[in-house]
Amino acid sequence: MSKNNQILLEEIIRQERDDLDETQNLDKFFEFFSIAQVLKSYELSYDEIEAGITGESHDGGADGIYLFVNGDLVKEDETDIKGKYKKNVDIEFVIIQSKNSNSFSEDPLLKLSRLSRGLFPLDFDRNEFEGRYNSKVLESFERFRDTYISLITKKPKLKVSFIYASKGIEVHPNVLRQAEDLKNDVKSLLSDATVEVDFIGAELLLKLVQARTNDVYRLKLSENPMSSSGQVFIALANLMDYYNFITDENGNLIKHIFESNVRDYQGKTNVNNEIQETLENPGNEEFWWLNNGVTIVASAASAPGGKELIIHNPEVVNGLQTSSEIYKYFTSTIGKGVEEKRNILIRVIVPETEEARDKIIRATNSQTPIPKSSLRATDSIHRQIEDYLKPRGLYYDRRKNFYKNEGKKPKDIISVSFLAQCLMSVILQKPDFARARPSTLLEEDSAYNDLYHKNNDLHTYFILAYIGRTVELFLKETGRYTSSEINDIKFYVLYASCAQLCSNVYPSNKSLSNLSKDSLTVTLLETTSALVYDLYKVAGGNDKVAKGPKLIELLKDKLREKKL
User: Fold this and answer.
1) Cα-Cα-Cα-Cα dihedral of 138, 139, 145, 147, to 10°?
2) Cα–Cα distance between 385 and 392 in angstroms, integer?
3) d(CA 316, CA 361)
4) Do the Cβ atoms of 217 and 184 come closer than 8 Å?
5) 434 by DSSP, 3-state: which?
6) What pLDDT score was predicted for residue 554?
């Protein structure tokens, strides 16, 4: 039976590789594939998975590194972590080793022990490890350290998870002993941490692959729902029944039912504390009297049995804070085992159009201080970009993971942040900003209004998305650059390519809109990537150089020498 699991898994991997990325060899694809499976519950996008993969060399045995706070991925440009989280903070640092082999061995664990002893001390000096470990590894441990220290007054629960994935069937006792040594190494440095080493072999990987995502949910109601014209329902649900609706069979929060553009907001006010106080200390007032409730949009909804709603593809677009506090309450010692009689107000709406859906999201969140970047993708310009790119073979993922779940290839999916980086790099000539601030570019009104003005030609968005993705794929396929180097230079190569195609160091929206995708040649990519890489290495060749102002000025000088 176990051998059969290996055979089936190998066939699945080959088919997935052919469907998603036929250019990668099987060893490299297994790394991506296994990481995507073991982190499936976190609902990461393809770009987020790729960002955590550390590269082919000097990785210390860590093929992928990911940091989560309260289940949310912490990105490299996260700011104000301390202000974002108030209490009940859970930090999980996940380090993944992935081997396309039929066994588990001691060597990767020995490497991880050495890595841990060097980088888990909170006073580690990055400069001492330059050259031994690549930039992505060092950045990841710096991010962990800074996040942990900034949240230490919140009394966080810290978990360090090592995951060793392979096609193995059994784990030899010597490997298990080495895993214990690894745990002890980390515990000696982080005494308050829970440390786990999990082995994910052929059987478990197969189960993860075959697990299906549910898209039809049932919500038990306290009374028959009210319904107006169309598929719109207003109802009261018992707090415990709503908790069951938003959690899986293991009691984990179902992340993908929370609308992706607003679900990561934690809030800087005392709203969460007030909700938790109301839950923990019930008075004479009903819970739904004191709370605005939850708004859910869906693709279909019905109430065939009276006191129950059947909801297809639900998305909680308002009420994240309420939902999060309800989840925390029922998973805490206070809420467990309590006979719950209180209700929450639920609104379920099936919008007729995408425009209506976006209006609902904006309207229901208008009274909450949601960061601007969280609601940007509901602007009409982003729907127009999505509609323009789709018939041209690119899929603008303004609803996170929509096209991933549709089975589109990673190379054809353009995330909101990736397009913003491309626009910032070329139109504003700021590839340094694009590299340093990938997830916060949409927060500044002035830059946003320039980049997404209603009068901008939609073809500009397509051509920059196309060239940006082509540059990224070219740099990977050459095999000349490490993952860290590609991450550092790709937006500089994009800018320099567009500047040369437009014959101008300052490419305009109009000149970019006149380009066709056939304008980009392999020769141009070869010469431009070589130019950028040489300047990058001369300047220091690390992430600090890519994020600083010096490299773009050097590049502009070189382009001016070409009489642009």
Assistant:
1) -170
2) 11
3) 9
4) no
5) helix
6) 95
One-character DSSP codes across 216-285: EEEEE-SSPPEE-SSSEEEEEEEHHHHHHHTB-TTS-B-GGGB-TTTTT---SSSHHHHHHHHHHS--SS
| Cβ atoms < 10 Å from Cβ of 358 | 23
Helix, strand or coil, per DSSP, at residue 163 = strand
User: Residue 372's pLDDT is what?
Assistant: 52
* pLDDT at residue 268, as a whole number: 45
Walk across the sheet containing 64-69 and list its strands. 72-73, 64-69, 90-98, 157-165, 194-200
Place of tokens 């220290």: 149
Integer Cα distance of 69 and 13 in angstroms: 31
pLDDT digits (tens, 9 = 90+) for 541-555: 988 999 999 999 999
Assess whether pLDDT exceeds 70 at residue 317.
Answer: yes
For residue 310, list its beta bridge partners.
Answer: 218, 302
pLDDT: is 405 or 334 the higher one? 405
Interhelix angle for 483-502 vs 416-426, to 10°?
Answer: 50
The helix (H) or strand (E) run that includes residue 388 is helix 380-389
In the chain, what's the furthest Cα-to-Cα distance?
Answer: 77
Q: Does the pLDDT of residue 230 top 70, yes or no? A: no
Helices assigned H by DSSP within 395-542: 402-405, 416-426, 431-436, 445-451, 458-478, 483-502, 509-513, 522-538
Where is 160: in which H helix or E strand? strand 157-165
Q: Spell out the residues 6+ positions from residue 160 whose beta carbon is closer than 8 angstroms to its own.
A: 92, 93, 95, 186, 190, 193, 194, 195, 196
Q: Which residue has the higher pLDDT, 511 or 263?
A: 511
Tell me what the mean pLDDT of segment 275-300 comes to: 86
Q: What is the pLDDT of residue 441?
A: 63
Encoded amino acid at 460, one letter: T
Condensed to tens digits (0 to 9), the pLDDT of residues 47-98 reads 999 999 997 788 999 999 999 998 889 988 776 677 777 777 899 999 999 9
Digit-coded pLDDT (tens) for 475-500: 999 989 988 899 999 999 999 999 99
The answer to whether the beta carbons of residues 26 and 101 sit under 8 Å apart is no
Is the per-residue pLDDT at 469 higher than 80? yes
Q: What are phi and psi of 512, to 5 degrees?
A: -65, -35
Q: How many CB atoms neighbour CB 58 within 10 A?
A: 18
Are 60 and 137 in contact by the 8 Å Cβ rule? The answer is yes
Burial class (CB in 10 A: 0-12, 13-18, 19+), 366: exposed
The residue ranges of every structural domain in the chain are 2-210, 216-366, 375-561
Distance of CA 185 to the CA centre of its chain: 29
CATH of 2-210, one of 3.40.50, 3.90.1150, 3.40.91, 1.10.1660: 3.40.91
